[in-house]
Amino acid sequence: MDLPTFINRRTTVTAVAACTAIGMLLLNVVASAAINTVVDTVPVGWNPNAVAIAPDGAHVYILNEDSAPGSSNGEVSVIDVSTSAVETTVTVGRTPLSIAVTPDGSHVYVANYSSGSVSVIDTTTNTATATVTVGTNPETVAITPDGTRAYVTNNGSASVSVIDTSTSTVTATVSVGTSPGAIAVSPDSARAYVANNGSANVSVIDTSSDTVSATISVGTYPASVAITPDGLTAYVTNLVSDSVSVIDTSADAVVLTASVGDGPNAVALTPDGTFAYIVNTLAQSISVIETSSNNVIATVAVGTTPSGVAITPDGTRVYVTNNGSGSVSVISTATNAVTSTITVGARPYGIAITPDGRRTYVANYNSFDVSVIDSEASAEPVLDASAWTSHLQQLPMPPSGDCTEVADDDYAWGTGITGGWQPTWASWAALGQGGWACGRTLTNTGGNRWIVTQQ
Question: What is the CATH architecture assignment of 37-379?
Answer without folding.
Answer: 7 Propeller (2.130)
